[in-house]
Amino acid sequence: MTKAYRLKNINVHFQQKCVLNIPELNIPAQKCIALLGANGAGKSTLLHLLAFTLPASSGEISLFGQDIKNKLNSQQRRKIAFVSQHPYLLPGSVEDNIKLSLTLQGIPKSQHRALIDSALEQTNTVHLAAQTATSLSGGELKRVAIARAIAYQPEILLLDEPFSHLDSQHIQILESQLKLYSQQNNTTVIFSTHDRLRAMTIAEETINLVEGTITQSPLLNVFHGTFEQQLFHTGKLSINTNSSTQQHQAHHIAIDPQQIIISTVALKSSMRNNFKGRLILIAEDAGTVRLTVDCGEQFHVTISPESLHQFGLTIGNTVHLSFKSTAVTVF
Amino acid sequence: MSYFIESLSAATSLIINLDHDVYQVVSTSVLISLAASLIAAVLAIPAGVLFSLQHFRGKAIIQHLLNTLMAMPTVVIGLLLYGLFSRLGPLGNLGLLYTPSAIIIAETILIFPIMMNLAITAVSSADPRLIPTLISLGAKPIPLVIHIIRATRLAMIAAIVTGFGRAIGEVGAAMMLGGNIAGLTRTMTTAIALETSKGEFELGLALGLLLLIIAFILNFMLSWLHRPSHD
């Protein structure tokens, strides 16, 4: 599989604080990938790094197999388009902005008309072509910024929180356009979001970030705390893990919601983690049911709709959660 | 009091009747200041933008130096250039002393730090997304500078207008380097000083009134450029 990016031993520091630490990361080409994480997890920093608008403090990045030592050359720059969380349009009309991106990329004028029309059509912004930035709504502005970015037909489209500050109607429009764009153009689309469901709806793969590090956990049931031997203390609960001594420097654990067993009575089993709690939320989650149980810490548990029906669970029920120490990911 | 009123009346009459001497001085003054402003703008504005884009050790010191140069007395510039342009000076063979070129050079040096500082301020007060957006769209160094100037053009025009205002009101260097030669290097400020000392108060007053009108027009332009609703 072709790799769009390969990152090795990447560190980014701001004011002597490490905000991103990636020992190794391979990002495949021609896929739609979501960068998932809470605010401050390092999503924007990673995107800026991938856009080469922010240099890494140390480490190596390769783009389509080519090591990037300093700045990108014109050909490499043309492969990447970046749309920031709060896009900025320069003075002039929407069309002027798209034309500017083509001019800056050194694309011959003879091709401008066709590329502008194509970008406007793909983002459904043809009717906005003559408008200025100040007259656009938040959703329109983001779509226009995407039009400007895709006009020169990049191989990688990077989008920082494209769905933030948008109403549900504009989110739906943007979601479907991104999906379509990714499929039709064989482009690598990488977008950041803190919304796990949205990421799963659009992306083929997700990269999960927690406090600047990449984790394989699905970012549910993530707890912050400290280790004492194999016991992880969150401050409210102690959770058994099967961590090695080397992992005891870690400060996070995550528990796969599908590995947690929920019951109405305490189970007698070999599972080393057993907690009693109160069911506080029942939600539909991509064809399954997500339960939130407050055991001092809040746990998310995934069950099937049939199981929900079978258990007859309702909000406020007292329930028991059990999971093995091997279900705990340490990072 | 009647002397002042009579002089004011005579000065107004000179302005209204388009007195040749008055308007020759005005045109010399405006042309010299315009030339200095254009040369300084071509140099100072890209320099200010480039300075804003670079991060290097000693940047703060250069910024302080520019601030100091903004307040540099014009007679000091006149004095230094006089030393360079005088017959025995290192640039004496260029024959620049007592020519409009000498005044243009002096005024360019005088307003360069003002324009550069204002250009730096224009970039730093522009939308913080402007430069990252242009870089991410693939702007190379020269197009980057051009598009930054274009995006901040109103502030840049304000910098040029401010520089022009400083140049046209300058007297020390113009007097020392121009020599106040009628029809050649006699500017409004030097003429006011000379005519008043000769007792030709009405001519000095006429030029003073015109200088005030120019200052008013420039300030009006600056206010218009800086008005809140301006896009």
Structural notes for this entry:
The complex is a heterodimer of chains A (331) and B (231). Chain A has 331 residues and is of the alpha+beta class. Chain A folds into 2 domains: 3-215, Rossmann fold; 222-330, OB fold (Dihydrolipoamide Acetyltransferase, E2P), CATH 2.40.50. Helix content of chain A is 25%, strand content 34%. Chain A is built from 8 helices and 21 strands. In chain A, the strands form 5 sheets. Chain A has a 6-stranded mixed β-sheet with strand order 6-7-8-3-9-10, sandwiched between helices. A 5-stranded antiparallel β-sheet of chain A has the order 16-20-17-18-19. In chain A, helix 3 (94-104) crosses helix 4 (109-122) and helix 4 crosses helix 5 (138-150). The model of chain A has no long low-confidence stretch (mean pLDDT 89). Chain B contains 11 helices and no strands. Chain B is globular and about 65 Å long. Chain B has 231 residues and is an all-alpha fold. Helix content of chain B is 76%, strand content 0%. Chain B starts with a helix and ends in a 6-residue tail after the last helix. Classes of the chains: A alpha+beta (331), B mainly alpha (231). The A-B interface holds A 51, 53, 74, 77-78, 81-82, 84, 86-88, 90-91, 100-101, 103-106, 132, 134, 148, 152 and B 127, 129-130, 132-140, 143, 147, 150-151, 231.
